[in-house]
């Protein structure tokens, strides 16, 4: 067992406690972000989103790291949608080692289906009782912005270093860029430059691969 996985295993009792506290609608997932392509190492109540050990992360970059509300290594209460249109209330906390490096993430996913039905019933019985007051979106601190950049750098490094292929062939590089694109890596500032440098190719080449992938996806959707 790797040292990182050994450290992350210490969070399993916490994950189980949360899941048992809030019941079967609450899924808790632990990710090993030093193994991005197969980051899920533990899950409980996985029927909520279908997360399984050996899968990769999904919402870490797009919903968490890029959120204006992400600060101090956590984001609580954001919403995601399942393929069957259920609303999931999610929270993510990054996990660091004793050297202050991000090594993992603990994610809580709560199926709001039952809660939504209860809310609808209350709204019908007592109209206007629950009025939501929009909260102001806090801006990320300078330390958090720097932390996000460091996490992005580390994710790119880990993704490339754990690629199974030799990365000498064009198709291997395209598939790697496809994975990073799907995970939202290229939405992060400076990521194209970093990936190009790490792969030993030009920025123009990275953009041409992304354009090729976009056209392939559009072709698949129309066929």
From TrEMBL:
Residues 153-211 form the Transcriptional regulator DauR-like HTH domain. It comes from the Bacteria. Signal peptide: none annotated. Residues 8-120 form the YheO-like domain. PANTHER family: TRANSCRIPTIONAL REGULATOR DAUR. This is Helix-turn-helix transcriptional regulator. The lineage of its organism: Bacteria, Bacillati, Bacillota, Bacilli, Bacillales.
